């Protein structure tokens, strides 16, 4: 298993810069589709980024050091703080990423082993309608297991696209016999037709400690009319008697801090006005510009830094605003070709072509793969065959009781018998 490159030698840029979107007008395509589910609309490939959604969810692992930190802490409140920082950091990679990842094909898989960060991950597209991606990551030294299944429900609102990530994320800290679960906030891409594209995340994320019923509540604030709360995340950790143990605050695009609740209340003297923005996004034709209030997080004295975002590399702006971590995800590292499952995203010819800057080829290949998938589905229907998933089984999440996909194990034994030919 330890055959792949150490982190220090994975690539830090893509083979080619991105194609400019400026010349494309999609208004005529999209005008007819208001209110529909986006998965039913064919978007021009120029709005994609050269990663599969399976790779995009792997970006949760960028800040694995926060899970490792949680494992190493003996104080349970501090562990919860590290887990909260991890949950926020996991969506930070979406900042300025307006490209749409490729929809995974049914049966598509992705694996990532990062010895320096101490984890390995496998994921599989387990359902096509609705599109469900299941992932399972584990510590290489047995400290944690991190898994989930995500159903990104996309809605097109005329001027914006909203992605509601349905599904539960579960983190088990094995040494501490602790399990945490949460769901990600809703992500919205504004101005997909005119104006400047920008990204907002909003909603409440509740991280539950299933051993005690203690929880951390994080409120990702919508930006509001004057942008005062743009990117702001604010919340607290409470014990089961609802006593606030600490306040957690910051921005998902920047950094997160924690502080004593009393200190926070006494220091937070600038009275926030909370504007309830109710904009009818589909009716008004003007662009919803991103408010340009950009002051950074004001730190309350006595706070502890939980996490700070890494700066994007300089060439990121010509490469889909990828982070360094994202740049490496589709790389076929030396030695991988003979070892990866043939269903691995890195073998997808459309993503590969787009990454290399060949947009026409990418578009043709994407169409071919989708057609091949449709034909295979028809074949199965004709012979009354059910699709069976390979590495995950449908089941119940033992902590939340909700429907989930559970890893059946064995992927890294690398027995690829009977894998479907999807490319
Ligand atoms: C979570 O549950 C464990 C196990 O019962 C407990 O020891 C710990 O205090 C809890 N931690 C938090 C932060 O709620
Ligand atoms: C990258 O970020 C810039 C600055 O916010 C933005 O104008 C651009 O549209 C983004 N590009 C992509 C591909 O998301
Ligand atoms: C872990 O926690 C569960 C549920 O609280 C309990 O039933 C089990 O005995 C614990 N195991 C250990 C090793 O502490």
TrEMBL record:
<keyword id="KW-0446">Lipid-binding</keyword>
<dbReference type="GO" id="GO:0015485">
    <property type="term" value="F:cholesterol binding"/>
</dbReference>
<dbReference type="InterPro" id="IPR037239">
    <property type="entry name" value="OSBP_sf"/>
</dbReference>
<dbReference type="GO" id="GO:0097038">
    <property type="term" value="C:perinuclear endoplasmic reticulum"/>
</dbReference>
<keyword id="KW-0813">Transport</keyword>
<dbReference type="Pfam" id="PF01237">
    <property type="entry name" value="Oxysterol_BP"/>
</dbReference>
<feature type="coiled-coil region">
    <location>
        <begin position="352"/>
        <end position="386"/>
    </location>
</feature>
<keyword id="KW-0175">Coiled coil</keyword>
<comment type="similarity">
    <text>Belongs to the OSBP family.</text>
</comment>
<dbReference type="InterPro" id="IPR018494">
    <property type="entry name" value="Oxysterol-bd_CS"/>
</dbReference>
<keyword id="KW-0445">Lipid transport</keyword>
<dbReference type="InterPro" id="IPR000648">
    <property type="entry name" value="Oxysterol-bd"/>
</dbReference>
<dbReference type="GO" id="GO:0006869">
    <property type="term" value="P:lipid transport"/>
</dbReference>
<dbReference type="GO" id="GO:0005829">
    <property type="term" value="C:cytosol"/>
</dbReference>
<protein>
    <recommendedName>
        <fullName>Oxysterol-binding protein</fullName>
    </recommendedName>
</protein>
<dbReference type="GO" id="GO:0005886">
    <property type="term" value="C:plasma membrane"/>
</dbReference>
């Amino acid at each position: 298993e330890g055959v792949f490159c150490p982190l220090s030698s994975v690539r830090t840029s893509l083979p080619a810069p991105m194609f400019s979107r400026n010349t494309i007008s999609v208004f005529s395509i999209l005008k007819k589709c208001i209110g529909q589910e986006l998965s039913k609309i064919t978007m021009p490939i120029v709005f994609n980024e050269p990663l599969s959604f399976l790779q995009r969810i792997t970006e949760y692992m960028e800040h694995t050091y926060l899970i490792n930190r949680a494992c190493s802490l003996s104080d349970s409140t501090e562990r919860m703080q590290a887990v909260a920082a991890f949950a926020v950091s996991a969506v930070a990679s979406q900042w300025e990423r307006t490209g749409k990842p490729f929809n995974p094909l049914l049966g598509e898989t992705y694996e990532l082993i990062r010895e320096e960060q101490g984890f390995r991950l496998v994921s599989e597209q387990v359902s096509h309608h609705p599109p469900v991606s299941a992932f399972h990551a584990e510590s290489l030294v047995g400290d944690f297991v991190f898994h989930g299944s995500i159903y990104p429900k996309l809605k097109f609102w005329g001027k914006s696209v909203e992605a509601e990530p349905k599904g539960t994320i579960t983190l088990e800290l094995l040494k501490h016999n602790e399990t945490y679960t949460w769901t990600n906030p809703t992500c919205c891409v504004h101005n997909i037709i005119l104006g400047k594209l920008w990204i907002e995340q909003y909603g409440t994320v509740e991280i539950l400690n299933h051993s005690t019923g203690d929880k951390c509540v994080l409120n990702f604030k919508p930006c509001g009319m004057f942008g005062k709360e743009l990117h702001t995340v604010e919340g607290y950790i409470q014990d089961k008697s609802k006593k606030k143990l600490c306040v957690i605050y910051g921005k998902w695009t920047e950094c997160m801090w924690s502080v004593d609740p009393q200190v926070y209340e006494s220091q937070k003297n600038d009275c926030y006005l909370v504007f309830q923005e109710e904009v009818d996004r589909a009716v008004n034709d003007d662009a919803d510009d991103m408010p340009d209030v950009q002051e950074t997080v004001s730190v309350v004295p006595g706070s502890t830094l939980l996490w700070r975002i890494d700066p994007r590399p300089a060439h990121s702006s010509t490469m889909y605003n990828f982070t360094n971590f994202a740049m490496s995800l589709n790389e076929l590292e030396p030695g991988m070709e003979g070892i990866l499952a043939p269903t691995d995203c890195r073998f997808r010819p459309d993503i590969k072509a787009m990454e290399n800057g060949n947009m026409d080829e990418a578009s043709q290949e994407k169409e071919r793969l989708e057609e091949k998938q449709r034909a295979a589905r028809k074949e199965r229907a004709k012979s009354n065959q059910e699709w069976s998933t390979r590495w995950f089984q449908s089941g119940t999440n033992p902590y939340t009781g909700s429907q989930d996909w559970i890893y059946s194990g064995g992927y890294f034994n690398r027995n690829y018998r009977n894998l479907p030919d999807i490319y």
